[in-house]
Amino acid sequence: MKLNEIRDNEGAKKNVKRVGRGIGSGTGKTSGHGQKGQKARSGVAINGFEGGQMPIYRRLPKRGFKNPFAKVYAVVNLDTIQKAIDAGKLKAEDVNIEALKNAGLISKTLSGVRLLARGAITSKANISVNSASKAAVAAVEKAGGKVAIVA
User: Fold this and answer.
1) Which of 8, 57, 131, 138 is 20 to 30 Å from 34 at the Cα level?
2) DSSP label at residue 110
3) Which has the closest alpha carbon to 131: 71, 86, 58?
4) Burial degree of 3 (CB within 10 A; 0-12, 13-18, 19+)
5) Rounded to an integer, what distance in angstroms lies between the CA atom of residue 146 and that of residue 136?
6) What would the pLDDT profile of 29-48 be if each residue is shown by its tens digit?
7) How far does CA 87 lie from the centroid of its chain?
8) Where are the domains of the chain?
9) Is the CB of residue 146 less than 8 Å from the CB of residue 115?
10) Does domain 74-149 have CATH number 3.100.10.10?
């Protein structure tokens, strides 16, 4: 490779569309903005405007409520933990939030980590999480492990 042979990859640079340069270009005269009117002008902000008619977002009734204090958990399932133990990413005797993060099973803890019962666990694992479903706790205890709920 020589310095004078360096080029961009094919398709890396796109030519700028030159508007308002005569009718032969296809984007002359109105520059792709059509004929007159509000949308041909600059500074148009008419999203949701329906020409004075009551807009759909005001015609329809408002329903529901979003709880600002709701807890959102990072979810870990039993089968994922078992796969990580089999692959050697986790030690069965000490499965906690830090270990789950280091193994790449969760990226963010959010309001905490919740253990759910999808799949099966065969290893005798001691798991420390913020929350767990009853079925998940039962499955871990059946395999001979323990689930500790951390605040």
Assistant:
1) 57
2) B
3) 71
4) exposed
5) 10
6) 999 899 998 888 888 878 88
7) 26
8) 18-64, 74-149
9) no
10) yes
